[in-house]
Specification:
Blueprint: H1 8-26, E1 31-32, H2 34-41, H3 45-55, E2 66-67, H4 68-79, E3 85-90, H5 94-101, E4 110-117, E5 126-127, E6 130-134, H6 138-141, E7 147-152, H7 156-168, E8 173-176, E9 189-192, H8 195-213
Parallel strand pairs: 3-4, 3-7, 4-6, 7-8, 8-9
Antiparallel strand pairs: 1-2, 5-6
């Protein structure tokens, strides 16, 4: 499979497929068809077929479809969920603490191993059995950790400086929860999650829905 030819929209759909297939497996449904997936997830059959062709070499059988368990295995392998990647969190405020306590990350192949902050009430403590270090220790600690990913939830005014330090320390991927654009080298992977923008979209959709109901 050539992951370079996979669009961002497709990558966003694969976890939806997996969640749906896992629900089928829990109810002991053994086979599933592209039309069935398309109807449930409100997609087109063509989208589903093209997406599945990328992650599995097994062809669906007429009137039978594909094996649910085999599709789950192929999707988990494609998404890397069966290979644990370790990560650190910088900014252990309310959101950062929630991430450190969230056990569901392991289901997605992500293991948070430590946090970094400047709050003296947090530094030196353990959150969900994970240590919290001072941000001044980033360059010292990260080379000794087996992680390439950093989850950044810091205040905007220090985020760029923090990210620069993370990259200098060997971090190769940034999951950015700050509302600013990060300036990073081309070989650094950044995924931005703008909560304000997401909330704006949600609010706009709700307003449109309410207007239609009037």
């Amino acid at each position: 499979m050539d992951i370079k030819n996979v669009s961002k929209k497709q990558l966003e759909r694969y976890p939806l497929y997996l969640k749906y297939l896992l629900s089928l497996d829990e109810t002991h449904i053994e086979n599933v068809s592209s039309p069935m997936i398309a109807r449930t997830l409100e997609l087109t059959e063509e989208q589903v077929r093209k997406d599945l062709q990328i992650v599995t070499k097994k062809e669906g059988k007429p009137r039978e479809g594909r094996k649910v368990k085999e599709l789950i295995e192929d999707l988990e392998q494609f998404l890397g969920y069966n290979e644990i990647s370790e990560a650190i969190i910088v900014g252990v405020g309310h959101l950062g603490q929630a991430f450190m306590k969230y056990k569901g990350f392991l289901s997605f192949g992500l293991k948070v191993v430590a946090g970094f902050d400047i709050d003296p009430n947090l530094v030196g403590t353990m959150i969900n059995e994970k240590p919290v270090y001072h941000v001044d220790k980033i360059k010292e600690i990260i080379p000794h950790l087996n992680c390439q990913i950093a989850i950044v939830t810091t205040p905007s005014d220090v985020s760029q400086e923090i990210v620069n330090t993370l990259i200098e320390s060997g971090i190769e991927a940034i999951w950015n929860f700050t509302p600013i654009h990060l300036d990073v080298p081309k070989d650094i992977v950044v995924e931005n999650v703008n909560l304000a923008s997401s909330l704006a979209v949600l609010s706009h959709k709700l307003k449109r829905k309410n207007m239609k109901e009037i």
